[in-house]
Specification:
single chain, 314 residues, alpha+beta, Rossmann fold, Tumour Suppressor Smad4, 2 domains, 10-stranded antiparallel β-sheet, 9 helices
């Protein structure tokens, strides 16, 4: 089998020795080439080139941003994505079922490749950017932006950097604009569906669960979503302690009580979500800040990506 390993050398865990060990392990069974990224968007271009050349699987070795870019390059092709953990949080590889340890995950990947363990999955799409597990609007986008400005902290202390950034952003909540999330309601095929408009200051469009990890603990906000299912959206109407703290506690306890909270709206089974604001609001996908916009269209793209998954989980 032909593999291309797309490596982000700036990722938290990816040193020369680890990279060599991963490539050596995969090369024991397959024809492997290595493509090292040099900047934003490079993983997408290298993945698309590999797909055009008929490569069977592109392995992303980096953080969630590298996996996201690689998926964007492979969407709509027959070349599969395999996501290995090499970043600080590694939400997507862990969600799929790979261990958080890179070498242990490589062993599982070799078994998955030998077994032909693949699944055709969907992506979310925020504007023109696909996402694997979530798109965040408002509060968490500001958190991601702050962490990206201090990337040394993410490399040094990992998830703690996000916790500190979240506290700093929360202290400035008066600066957060309010926006409107619009979702379709009603039964498909029963005429034009109604629309529901929800005002909020923090929204998460979820393609998979969990939303993220706090160290070893998953933060679950919509346990109903999954690789083969449509989107969910969670909207926090305000960022006060009376809303944020119960929402965090619920997310740490499987998220099933989240929809009972008065300051939170949870909607599932969505093909499309629209966000509009009176002034530009920041947004991020899969942990990468993409800027600010006053209008954002988020939609579900079913069955557009082949994904290598651990044996038995397809």
């Amino acid at each position: 089998m032909r593999l291309t390993v797309v490596v982000n050398p700036a990722a938290t865990k990816v040193g020369a020795d680890l990279r060599a060990a991963v490539v050596e392990a995969l090369a024991a069974d397959h024809e492997v080439t290595v493509a090292e990224t040099a900047g934003p968007g490079d993983a997408t271009a290298r993945a698309a080139r590999a797909a055009a050349e008929g490569v069977d699987v592109v392995v992303s070795l980096g953080g969630d941003g590298t996996a996201n870019e690689t998926a964007n390059g492979l969407a709509g092709t027959a070349t599969a994505l395999a996501a290995l953990p090499g970043g600080s949080t590694n939400v997507f590889p862990r969600t799929v079922g790979f261990p958080n340890d890179t070498l242990a995950a490589t062993t599982v990947l070799r078994a998955a490749l030998a077994a032909g363990s693949r699944q055709r999955v969907g992506l979310g799409r925020a504007g023109d950017r696909g996402f694997l597990f979530h798109a965040g609007i408002g509060f968490d986008a500001r958190v991601v932006e702050l962490v990206e400005r201090h990337s040394w902290a993410k490399r040094s202390v990992g998830p703690l950097a996000f916790a500190v950034a979240a506290g700093a952003v929360w202290l400035g909540t008066r600066d957060h604009p309010t926006f409107t999330v619009e979702v379709g309601t009603g039964t498909p095929g029963a005429g034009s569906p109604a629309t529901e408009r929800i005002d909020g200051r923090f929204a998460i469009c979820l393609k998979t669960d969990p939303y993220t990890y706090l160290g070893p603990r998953p933060l679950t906000m919509a346990p109903e979503v999954g690789l083969g299912r449509p989107l969910a959206v969670v909207v926090l109407r305000d960022l006060g302690m009376a809303t944020m703290l119960p929402a965090l506690c619920s997310a740490l306890q499987e998220g099933r009580r989240l929809r009972e909270l008065p300051g939170v709206a949870v909607r599932t089974g969505l093909e499309r979500v629209s966000v509009s604001a009176g002034e530009p609001v920041g947004y991020q996908v899969d942990g990468e800040f993409l800027g600010a916009t006053a209008d954002l269209d988020v939609r579900h793209e079913p069955c557009c990506l082949d994904l290598v998954v651990p044996p038995g989980s397809a």
